[in-house]
Design goal:
The complex is a heterodimer of chains A (151) and B (471).
Chain A (H helix, E strand, L loop, with lengths): L11 E6 L7 H12 L3 E4 L6 H11 L3 E6 L4 H4 L3 H7 L6 E6 L8 H10 L4 E3 L5 H19 L3
Parallel strand pairs in A: 1-2, 1-3, 3-4, 4-5
Chain B lengths: L2 E7 L3 E8 L4 E9 L6 H16 L5 E8 L6 E5 L6 H11 L3 E6 L5 H10 L3 E4 L9 H12 L6 E3 L6 H7 L5 E3 L13 H18 L11 E5 H14 L10 E6 L4 E6 L9 E3 L6 E6 L8 H8 L1 H8 L3 H13 L8 H22 L2 E7 L2 E7 L8 E4 L2 H4 L4 H5 L18 E4 L5 H7 L4 H11 L1 E2 L4 H6 L4
Parallel strand pairs in B: 1-4, 4-10, 5-6, 5-7, 7-8, 8-9, 11-17, 13-16, 17-18
Antiparallel strand pairs in B: 1-2, 2-3, 11-12, 12-14, 15-16, 18-19
Helix pairs in contact in B: 2-6, 7-14, 8-9, 8-11, 9-10, 9-11, 14-15
The chains are: A alpha/beta (151), B alpha/beta (471).
């Protein structure tokens, strides 16, 4: 992954709303905020199948994928997401998810646990502030950098 | 008289069109054999002699421009990263550049892939992969694999800009032309620079490599592959010139012996509310259906259409069709002579035209979401296109061209296919489209008038409709 340093100055993040879900507003706000924070954003928009997230991440050499799901079917749509990434050679990619991830009133820690078990690095409940997400990214990218550094 | 000579070095014939540039009309047509394998000038001289006989004396030609699809056409292999993304973008760029795409590859090239590519012996290889600043590992690995191979054809690089320097270094021993990325940003198609680079390579190298530069004594140069000439002709007819409007968005269908080509000059944008999915579509789009050829692939047309349906359309029995198809397969030069042979050809052409245009045009589908149904669109919406032009012998020489060309039209039974609904149907009966595409490079106004005055409007012929009341 030895791209030109000037081109790699910015981290690339793929965003989109997964499955048969048309709720685009939150995802668009997220994409704008990420861009403002200096990330290169590849916004796939609404109605995006899992395979399209992965294809986009390969082609753009993305550092993270941020999945939005607002209609309660996130658990079904995201089944095997991490496995598919590994299968496609995207081993070190950060995988985040946020939104109304499940149907009905379920307690957040159990929902979060479920998505972390599926291989997501972070899961964001409704109402998560942008600042929190940006802080997560910084922490997680820094941790990756430490892990990759020799010694 | 101010005249121009437009030449098509085809794989079977060398065709000539002589044009009076002042009157803006065709003054002579002729053809000779295709002799590219031996000496391109033999067929050219035979065609010129034929033209001279027909016209009395040849005028002095101000322009003598040629296109070519001879010697196997412009054979290209395309390589990209993700099959649906840069690999597809590269394939579209090659098709748009008039190429015969003989192989498409995605992801890392294996040793076997490289062997396959060498066996395909392409005229040009188009290497893409990665958005600008995106993945460069796979593209540079592929460049390295090609560098280590015995591949000798020119390589056009249209991949990740950030990897261009590395690729150029790796391929230092090959002829490599670096151009802009076919997909600079995710899902953003940018195929014009690659098309232009391919055309330059065609003029600078391929024409010479195929022995076509010997034609220079009789013409000013072979300036483009024939499919590009047809596409440029279609573009002129669609868009017009500064001085005269064109017909508006146009589609061209050309059922040939080996493939059926479809070109569209149209935005393809859908109706408001439809969510476009997939790779963006090029304004000038060419598709080539390699399984729909009137002679070389007649049996696959029958497979696609279904032998029963084909037989019904031809008014023959399935057994009759099968034996006639076998006869075509054993002698692809064979032209129909008997009534059943003509009926089968008509049915083959109808099936090829319908299927090729259906594949070229996009589709809509309804996705049911918890918030209600949403319409999504794949591919180009060509339902509101203004004109459809039929070209090539299978339509032009048919007794009832309308019965074949009308198969492009939308069908109430297939409401999700975005095929043309109410276009003008035109017939390229004098085979002027390629000539107009060539002439447009020198005299666009004259080329446009020539096209508009020689494309014949088609309407239903009631006699034929009665003869085929079973349609």
């Amino acid at each position: 992954m030895s791209a030109h340093p000037a081109e790699r100055a910015r981290r690339t993040i793929v965003t989109g709303v997964i499955g048969s879900d048309t709720h685009i507003v939150g995802n668009r706000i997220l994409s704008m905020a990420l861009e403002k924070a200096g990330y290169k954003v590849v916004a796939l928009g609404a109605l995006t199948p899992m395979a399209d997230f992965i294809r986009a991440a390969i082609e753009t050499d993305a550092d993270a994928i941020m999945v939005s799901s607002l209609y309660g079917q996130g658990e079904l749509d995201c089944r095997g997401f991490r496995d598919h990434c590994i299968e496609a050679g995207l081993d070190e990619l950060l995988l985040y998810i946020g939104g109304n991830l499940v149907v009905g009133k379920q307690d957040w820690p159990s929902v979060e646990r479920r998505f972390l078990d599926m291989g997501f690095d972070r899961a964001a409940p409704p109402g998560t502030r942008m600042e929190t997400v940006l802080a997560w990214l910084e922490t997680d990218f820094a941790a990756q950098g430490r892990a990759r550094a020799p010694g | 008289m101010n005249a121009a000579l437009l030449i098509d070095f085809g794989s079977t014939y060398t065709k000539l069109r002589a044009v009076d540039l002042d009157a803006r009309r065709l003054i002579g047509t002729a053809q000779g054999p295709s002799t590219v394998a031996r000496d391109v000038t033999i067929g050219m001289n035979a065609a010129l002699a034929c033209l001279e006989r027909r016209m009395g004396a040849l005028p002095r030609f101000r322009y003598r421009l040629a296109c070519s699809s001879a010697a196997g056409g412009l054979r290209m292999v395309t390589v990209g990263l993700v099959r649906e993304l840069t690999a597809e973008a590269a394939r579209r760029a090659a098709l748009g550049a008039g190429a015969k795409v003989v192989g498409t590859y995605a992801y890392r090239l294996t040793a076997r892939d490289v062997d396959d590519i060498l066996a395909l012996a392409p005229d040009i290889l188009l290497l893409a992969g990665g958005t600008d600043g995106g993945n460069s590992a796979v593209t540079t690995a592929n460049a390295g694999a090609l560098a280590r191979s015995a591949l000798s054809c020119p390589i056009v690089y249209a991949g990740n800009r950030a990897a261009a320097d590395d690729v150029r270094c790796l391929l230092a021993d090959k002829r490599v032309i670096v151009t802009d990325n076919v997909m600079p940003e995710f899902n953003e198609l940018n195929i014009e620079p690659a098309r232009a680079a391919i055309r330059r390579v065609f003029i600078d190298h391929i024409v010479h490599a195929k022995g076509m530069d010997r034609a220079r004594v009789a013409c000013d140069g072979v300036i483009m592959p024939t499919p590009v000439a047809v596409m440029e002709g279609a573009r002129l007819v669609a868009e017009g010139t500064a001085g005269r409007d064109g017909l508006g968005e146009t589609l061209v269908v050309d059922p040939g012996g080996a493939t059926t080509d479809v070109h569209s000059i149209a935005s393809g944008a859908g109706t408001a509310g439809a969510v476009p999915l997939g790779l963006p579509e090029p304004h000038m789009k060419r598709t080539v259906e390699a399984d729909l050829g009137m002679r070389h692939n007649a049996s696959t047309i029958a497979e696609v259409a279904g032998i029963e349906a084909l037989a019904r359309d031809a008014g023959l029995s399935a057994a009759q069709c099968t034996s006639l198809l076998a006869a075509i397969a054993s002698d692809v030069e064979r032209l129909p002579r008997t009534a059943p042979e003509r009926a089968l050809d008509r049915a083959l052409a109808r099936a090829a035209v319908k299927t090729a245009v259906a594949r070229h045009c996009g589709t809509i589908a309804t996705v049911y979401t918890p918030t209600g149904p949403v319409t999504v669109q794949h591919g180009k919406d060509l339902s509101r296109i203004a004109a459809v032009i039929g070209t090539g012998g299978a339509i032009v020489a048919a007794p009832d061209p309308h019965a074949i060309l009308s198969r492009v039209l939308a069908d109430a039974g297939e409401p999700f296919s975005l095929r043309p609904r109410a276009p003008r149907l035109l017939l390229d009966s004098h085979y002027v489209l390629y000539a107009c595409g060539l002439l447009a490079t020198a005299e666009p106004e004259a080329a446009l008038e020539l096209a508009l005055s020689h494309l014949a409007p088609l309407s239903e012929d009631p006699r034929h409709e009665r003869a085929h009341a079973s349609d």
